[in-house]
Predict the structure.
Amino acid sequence: MGATVRVQATVNGERRESEVEARTLLVHWLRDELGLTGTHVGCDTSSCGACTLHLNGEAVKGCTVLAVQADGAEVTTIEGMGGEQALHPLQQAFWEQHGLQCGYCTPGMIMAAADLLARNPDPSEHDIRDALAGNLCRCTGYQNIVKAVQVAAARTRGGEGRPAKEEVAV
Amino acid sequence: MGAPGAETAERTEPGGNGFVGQALKRKEDPRLITGRGIFTDDIVLPGMLYAAIVRSPEAHARILSIDTEAAREHPGVEAVFTGEDLADMAAPCPMVWVPPGVEMRVPDHWPLARGKVGYVGQAVAVVVGRSKYGVVDAAEQVVVEYDPLPVVVDPEKALEDGAPIIHEEFGTNKVFEWSLPGGDVEGAFRDAEVVVEKRIVNHRTAGAAIEPRSVLAEWREGKLTLWSATQIPHICRVILSIQLGISEDKIRVVAPEVGGGFGSKLQVYGEEVLACWLARKLDKPVKWTATRSEEMSTTHHGRDQIDYVRIGAKRDGTVTGIHVKIIQDCGSYHLIEGPVIPTFSACVVSGCYDFPAVQTDIVGVFTNKFTTDAIRGAGRPEATHFIELTMDELAKELGMDPLELRRKNFIKEFPNERPHGFIYDSGDYHGTLDRCLEKLDLDGFRREQAELRERGVYRGVGFSTYVEICGLGPSRALGPDGWGMQGGYFESAQVRVHPTGSATVYTGTSPHGQGHETSFAQIAADRLGVTPDVVDVIHGDTNTGPFGKNTYGSRSLAVGGEAIARAAEKVQDKAKRIVAHKLEAAPEDIELVDGKFQVRGSPDKSMTLAEVAGEAYIPGDLPEGMEAGLDEMCFYDPSNFVWPFGAHACITEVDVETGRVDIVRYIAVDDCGPAINPLLIDGQIHGGIVHAVGQALYEQLVYDEEGQLLTGTFVDYALPSAADVPSFETDRTETPSPTNTLGVKGVGEAATIACSPAVVSSVLDALEPLGVTELDMPLTPMRVWQAIQEGGAR
């Protein structure tokens, strides 16, 4: 057991704090300490993006950030995007467009897509594919994921549903 | 050896409200899009320990010693075990393919190596402790001394005299030899006026589900529970019982949310057995989750065939026979069924074509690599690949258009018995090809291709017309006295209507992304006269519902869905008898219309399912002799396989300076019978295409001469990303299967089975002016560039 450090962060709008081993990855802190298991781990090399979450409003891979790096930060995970009673436009669009099959990559995909829409509210298919290149899906062939992001983007621009930024969701 | 007769199932009217065929949103999704799906690694039990596994860095070596002392003393470590400690296990991993009359070599494969290792990554010891990170630290302190042995990784070299023998007890690296001839094969090639021959390497790939394998075992009150990321919880329970010597009633296996399988979780892995053994030994729950590197090196691999193909034909293009010799690299040990996989190539060796004679000869080979077993398509993608590319070559040899050659030889009459005994149930091969060409505009493409070539832009088109065998399967054909699989291949269903009229369906299938909770609810809803939202589909838990045979081989709908339809129709029949009794009509006069059981001709006299259920569960006035309740079961064993088919076209562009291949357009026309939910079909097709595009262009498990896996992470093993593929154009024709009452075939593997030859053929077409005539997958820039250099030099 290495040295421990105190980490406090605002996670999905709530202040969370605990003592962790300094080497603890952010994704493990969220999953194992805070019980936020919606963020998944699919690889060891920051390649698959299953662990994508938002750190101070930007998408990061939670397996590539130490928990201590999130000290004092705002963290948003899939659990902070919207629940079954109040889905985020991206969640709604993934559902309607059949943008998921096994669902393992889905939280990371939604977080990466939300990051894209926050920066570019009207992305082309090429923009979407490019923005999601760091998030691997083995089930869907990506087509319906791309469609879902397009639909969510259009709705958000058109004022239907809620904005794609996570502030509203927390 | 062949399939039994294609008996025609009588199609009944579901009599419901038309949910079958609708593109309904999935019932599974709300929990998954909100991060509330519970995957195995998400589960935490009180007092749970973590396991980390010490793996061999050697591909072939004797284990001289294992020093576990430092690891045992590591803080938080509760125990360290090696293969010796597992001496009380009842049996090694059973390999369930025992073909009659075939000598099959099955080395003992234990969860932890005993005395020797045969592949890099083989588990040698396990460390169990309280900290997830701590057990990994401790595992690094286990010191294993190896005496390296000569390594062989090339299956053809492994068959040569003097090759290192991997299992001394056999004296050979040959796993088995198996042959399936049909028709007069010798005569076919004697009478042929043209014979084309090819050697095609279908390289080793990974299933690469994004969720790595994960297991959690608990031993409590003399009973074992295993949560596992598996496609086959019921089969797993049987095998755990055999390997651990624990009776099945004391074992529960749960497949919670499973993050993709693609065949890679159609397995019972050493870690599943080991976690159970540890939980019992230590009397505490034990969890192990693979890292991606462990996943790549020790989750079974797929493909890895070398195919020697010969097709004979007359000058007019009429094919006379096909003969293929398959060298299957099995790796150094088997898991539950690896050696059977290349035999599925043999099942479809005739493709869509009316070959009067076919023969497949298979040699399985041990090499110092990890086990190969079923990966999406399992033997059929390899067959489509070698058939289609060899047909292209034959067309070239004959100076004939490749599509004309295909059409000339398409099978047109169904059911159709092939020379090796299989009976294609139904098909319309011209129909899917016609539809594909309507979308493509081949003449337009050829004009565009010629214009682009003028400007140094190389585009090509390739086709694949395929048929696959799925819906595994008739137990009589596949079972011990037939193909030799030691199991049945029925599927079970239980349809339980509750007292207030909603229903729970228990299925023996075990989905991991396919959407059974939705499509199966649609099937049941139509037969019960309710909506799918009041039909809950339960799966993946051996403590609920009857024994099932789980999900693989595109079997879930054609076998499991049919079982649900039949169980629901039993419920419907009983409901009709109750309604007839209550409304004083004859049971045959009761019909189910728009959610109501009504007397034919008197729609005002009717009952809902809820009213019927009330009668069934408060049985004060049931027909004489009728039991209470509204709960029926079905074990459906199909009379034949089902045979989906289709036509795919791919247009690629090749950058001849760099060798990079881009897919410009992809058209898939598939026929899997009548759609239950078209949304789900499209999803399966999209994913299936990209899986095969991965193999065709990017993915390869590469072992070096020392048996080291060089592509053991997602950095080196290149799964296609969203940026690598375009959107696809999909369409369907619907030719019902006569095998089941739903008329359905299967679609989970179809596109993966179809796609790779279309991609390769399109690249060969693009590079035709440059003299490139052969390319083995994956078509990496390096390989394509080299081929251009060599082709250009000719």
Observations:
- Chain B touches chain A through 63 residues (CB under 8 Å).
- Chain B has three domains: 29-37+490-636, 42-375, 425-472+641-793.
- The domain at 42-375 of chain B is CATH 3.30.365.10 (Aldehyde Oxidoreductase; domain 4).
- The first helix of chain B runs from residue 29 to 33.
